[in-house]
Amino acid sequence: MISNLLVGSVTPYETAAGRRYQLLYRKPDRAQTDKRGFKTKREAELFLASIETSKSRGAYVNPTLSRVTVGDWCERWVATRTDLGASTLDRVEGILRRNIRPSLGNVAHGDLNRLQVQQWASALSETQSPWSVRKIVNTLSGAPQLAVDDGRIVADPAAKLKLPKVVKEGKTVSVARAGSRPRWGRRESR
Fold first, then answer.
1. Strands ordered across the beta sheet of 9-15
2. What backbone torsions phi and psi does residue 148 show, to the nearest 5 degrees?
3. CA–CA separation, 164 vs 176, rounded Å?
4. Global pTM?
5. Which burial class, exposed, middle or buried, applies to 166 when counting CB atoms under 10 A from its CB (0-12, 13-18, 19+)?
6. Which CATH class is domain 62-190?
7. Domain spans, the chain
8. Of 41, 42, 44, 38, residue with least CA distance to 25
9. Residue 186: left (phi > 0), alpha (psi -120 to 50), or beta?
10. What is the pLDDT of residues 114-173, one digit of tens each?
11. How close are the terminal C-alpha atoms of the chain, in Å?
């Protein structure tokens, strides 16, 4: 039986909809927490087993911390980016305002998955150039990566996406003045 192996307890309680089960367990910081609403005792025990497994692997994510929305987390992330120059910061804030918040801003970080982000990126490629799609997705990826590092989510859902390929045209080196550094420019079509 599963319950003999778990650290936590499952107790029944009554609601208007019938019997439900509550789970009491300890988080890695040893604070006690609970989760309610399981329809069967087995469902509660399986959830507890998944919690214990994630704790033993070091992959436990506090569900409360992953409830923050993508839009709110992106605001926090941008506020931490003191390394960005003014023009880069303007570009990032514009990407957040135009591309990320309208589509993903109200989604909780814990609910955001790779398929959802892939579909969003694919939809972007219908109206944006491949280069722009990559910049937008890279901007989105920065915020979830900080959430991973902060223990709010297990993995960055924007990582390893299939993005449109950027086709590079031939490049030539042009020297404007003798002794100046070469500048890269596009080869003119003939």
1. 9-15, 18-26, 32-38
2. -65, -50
3. 34
4. 0.65
5. exposed
6. mainly alpha
7. 2-60, 62-190
8. 44
9. beta
10. 999 999 999 999 999 999 999 999 999 988 888 888 888 888 898 889 998 888 776 544
11. 77
